[in-house]
User: Fold this.
Amino acid sequence: MARGGLAGAVRVARWADAALRPGRDGATPDGGGTLSDATAEGAADDLDLTPEQVRADWDTARLAGLVEVHGDSARPGWRLRAWDRDDSAVLRGWVALFDAWSLAHPAPDDLLPAAVAEVVEAMPQVLSLLQLSAGPVPVSQLLDLLEQRVTELRTERCEIPYGPHSAPTIPAPTTPALTTPVAAAPVLATPASISSEPATAEPATAEPATAEPATTEPATTGPDTAGPDTAEPAPAESTGPDAVSHVDAPLAALLDWALDALASVGALTCSAGQATLTPLGSWAVWVKLEQICVAAQSPAGHIEQPAEDMLRGCARLRPNAARAEYRAWLAARTVGSAVTELLDAARGEDALLRGLAFEALRVVGAPAEADVRAAAEEPSLRPYALLWLAEHEGLDPEDAHAVLTREESTWLWVDTAAAVADHGEAQLLVRHLESAMQPTVPALLDEVRAVGHPRTVQVLVALAAAHPDPALAKAVRRAAFQVHTGGA
Assistant:
């Protein structure tokens, strides 16, 4: 289903890769990753489509990560390169499109932007109900749930309901609103298995309950409260039934738009006044619910710790266990804040944390690319960032070191040796010597001295102390002394 739904986007993305790459006839920069009229018409002629279809498929390709925009240019994404050989790339591409459903099918201009934003924020709960129902759900029931969730969001933010007749006033003391929390789905993006942005949710589940709209005397209208003893509304400034009608009408239209948008990306179907998740949509929502459970049950208990402490706690875990911990930690944070925190940890003095931070960033995946690309400009992070980018773009991890210059490889060798010296055993440091790309120890020592790593002296001293060959140990100590004194 995912391959079929994205087939048109893949076709246009591959056409662009072949026809618009530098050096090809007709390759013109359109700017901002958009298609010019001439380019759209050219693609339409070659692919036997209309220009409108080409633009729609191009936008889908961008949202699914098949095409990545960098500045004013677009290039094939790693998902496009891995499309034929990696089913996970296909699923991640579809989930990225699913997460961007509100962009794939924008709301009509006549709908209030604030109302659109509220519905986008509330829809995960609607999707959760659809997934838990495992079958058709009446749209009227979804509207009731959406109305309740929007009311909860406004109450949490202490906002006045939008509408032409609503006015900010001071609420009078009334009975608290009779609302009951319902099962919440995660926001439509996560960092781990689907490359998207996470959020926590309310764990409680209950049948949606509605409340009487809040009303008081005209001078003390309270739009966010309700109770059985509230006064009758005054006609001039009512927030009772009239105000609810102002809210209900756009919410119904907004729900129709949201369901149409989700249907356009293949997440659900609508017919006869009922909505049903497709198998692909049900799977995607289930994965997101599962990730909330992962976030709530951090395997090693590091979910609330800052990145540096979490990475230290994962240092002695096996790779699979460490990745599970990374996923749990990431699921409890937004992608942006998590990536920033991991890169800050990587900038510290501990080389072990530097390596572990980029392992955690591998779990984040595509959403971290822009920040990792920027980090490649920092000397201490550059080798790690280049390796991350190479693997992200589809290069085999065993071959990724080919993207590093000899100087960058030497710097990385010293940095890794510093991590081993600080946290490992002497035997591991001796074995690390064998991983150097230089053919001889004297050649290695010459390049290590030249690379200027701040931990060079400590690494060489530790290596000399650990190595069983007295002659080699002596040469290493001499090199450490030369670096320490600034000699040649």
Remarks:
- The two ends are 64 Å apart (CA to CA).
